[in-house]
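ok, trying the design again with the full structure, not the truncated one.
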């Protein structure tokens, strides 16, 4: 009887945890999708008129146009934002299904982690180029970077908990303990805080000047 009660309580706790995990993924992916839509529209405006004044171009530093005119804005021969239009609806679908209690195959979740990991690396690369090469910031691009970080870390938390990453038992046990202590959330906060610090340190008073 007591074991059944424990199982029920554990199941309810896991269900609540899934809602938080996949809820964070869904909200973050929706934010990225909105940003991708806006950036795609702005890309069309720039294609028609390279001198067009974009809504997110505030000054010399906060300037979407400067970022979007750089070669890094279309590394694959089309605006990078188009990748978001393709990827984010998939993430949203997975997140909604996860909230509903759908259990995905282990291989699918491992592949999703790798795929989104590549997306995260790409987002950080674009952030570095924007901040330190172009020396201009695109607010919508920054939103994508933050959202991509949140999706990746939420997915990582889930996959570690469910042992979906094909890691050794010892490694996965260590990472599960890491999750239980909340260190993954702390790591996420550190990453985001580091991005803010880098931007403020780089531009200081000129950011809103």
């Amino acid at each position: 009887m007591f074991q059944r009660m424990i199982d029920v309580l554990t199941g309810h706790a896991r269900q609540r945890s899934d809602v938080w995990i996949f809820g964070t993924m869904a909200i973050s992916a929706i934010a990225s999708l909105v940003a991708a839509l806006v950036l795609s529209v702005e890309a069309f405006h720039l294609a028609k008129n390279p001198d067009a004044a974009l809504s997110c171009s505030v000054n010399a530093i906060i300037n979407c146009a400067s970022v979007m005119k750089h070669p890094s804005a279309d590394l694959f021969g089309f605006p990078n934002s188009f990748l978001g239009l393709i990827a984010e609806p998939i993430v949203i679908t997975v997140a909604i299904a996860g909230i509903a209690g759908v259990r995905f195959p282990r291989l699918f979740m491992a592949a999703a982690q790798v795929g989104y990991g590549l997306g995260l690396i790409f987002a950080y690369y674009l952030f570095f180029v924007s901040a330190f090469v172009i020396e201009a910031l695109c607010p919508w691009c920054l939103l994508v970077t933050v959202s991509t970080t949140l999706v990746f870390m939420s997915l990582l938390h889930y996959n570690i908990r469910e042992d979906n990453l094909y890691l050794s038992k010892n490694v996965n046990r260590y990472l599960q303990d890491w999750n239980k202590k909340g260190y993954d959330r702390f790591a996420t906060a550190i990453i985001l805080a580091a991005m803010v610090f880098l931007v403020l340190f780089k531009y200081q008073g000129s950011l809103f000047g």
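Keeping the full-length input from now on. The longest helix spans residues 2-48.
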